[in-house]
Design a protein that fits this description.
With about 270 residues, this protein is an alpha/beta fold. It has two domains: about 130 residues, 3-Layer(aba) Sandwich (Rossmann fold), CATH 3.40.50; about 100 residues, Winged helix-like DNA-binding domain superfamily/Winged helix DNA-binding domain (Arc Repressor Mutant, subunit A, Orthogonal Bundle). It is built from eight helices and 13 strands. Strands 2-1-3-4-5 form a five-stranded parallel sheet, sandwiched between helices. Strands 6-7-8-9 form a four-stranded antiparallel sheet, with helices on one face. Strand 1, helix 1 and strand 2 form a beta-alpha-beta unit. It is globular. The structure holds calcium ion. Calcium ion binds next to loops.
Length: about 270
């Protein structure tokens, strides 16, 4: 198998501490892959050989793979079925991976992992801004790809019901849903993790560095990636505002962000 070498994007996520049981109705639980089922994966890659080999590898690793060669076909498949993970090549004929990701986000909350031969940070920023959750440079190790995909699937699996109630905002931690005034907010994984970090420290200002460390992992802190936080925070807040949650997340200039209730600065 020849997809050697990988990028060092951290897939580590903060450990979830039990909060309290949540009384949301069961039909609000998102279950892209039920326990015991093989996680459904949508593989979008125009290179015939790579697509065929990778699809076969993923099947052997226990995923149920639907593979397509274009963004248009990927969007069509996403209308037909719910996928736990979408592995999305950036360089595609027709609409490219970035645009596919943006359109996919309007209909799917699957974990989107982008593949690209481009290595500069601009591409990473564009990828995350369009709603991607993770990013792997070609050439890559299929074993690491699988490890990341499994971690994403594990994070999606509902294990119990815990929720945070913060005024107009409710967060169902296990279903990984944020609800504002009864409306489920279609957050990406990154946006949800940012919101959850703020919610767990309600009333405290959380710095961009803390958010980077907690959501992306410590390797991102030194890479001047504060703007990554800003991009995702901005997208998340726009969704909260659209549901009537304009005041939920506040920016504290020079310090970071806060879900406000008697604001005080941390450290
Ligand atoms: Ca390609």
């Amino acid at each position: 198998m020849i997809f050697p070498v990988t990028t060092p994007i951290a897939a580590t996520m903060p450990r979830m501490d039990p909060i309290r049981s949540c009384a949301l109705p069961a039909d609000q639980t998102r279950t892209p892959s039920l326990a015991g089922e093989r996680p459904r994966v949508l593989l979008v890659e125009d290179g015939d050989e790579v697509r065929t080999i990778l699809a076969s590898f993923l099947e052997k690793e226990g995923f149920a793979v639907t593979s397509v060669a274009t963004g248009e076909d990927a969007l069509h498949e996403a209308e037909q079925a719910t996928f736990a993970v979408v592995v999305l090549d950036v360089g595609l004929p027709g609409i490219d991976g970035f645009e596919t990701c943006r359109l996919l986000r309007q209909r799917s909350d699957a974990h989107v992992l982008m593949l690209s031969v481009r290595t500069d940070e601009v591409d990473k920023i564009v990828g995350f801004a369009t709603g991607a959750d993770d990013y792997v440079n070609k050439p890559f190790s299929p074993r690491e790809l699988v490890a990341r995909m499994r971690a994403a699937v594990r994070r999606q699996a509902p294990t119990g019901r815990e929720c945070l109630e913060l005024g107009a905002l409710s967060i169902d931690v296990d279903a990984r849903q944020a609800i504002v005034l009864g409306t489920v907010i279609p957050l990406t994984r990154i946006e949800f993790e940012l919101l959850l970090m703020l919610a767990k420290r309600e009333g405290l200002v959380v710095s961009r560095t803390e958010l980077l460390t907690g959501v992306w992992g410590p390797t991102w802190v030194d890479s001047g990636s504060d703007h990554l936080v800003e991009v995702h925070m901005s997208n998340m807040r726009r969704k909260l505002i659209a549901a009537g949650g304009a005041g939920i997340v506040r920016t504290v200039r020079q310090h970071g962000y806060c879900i406000d209730s008697g604001l005080r600065l941390s450290a």
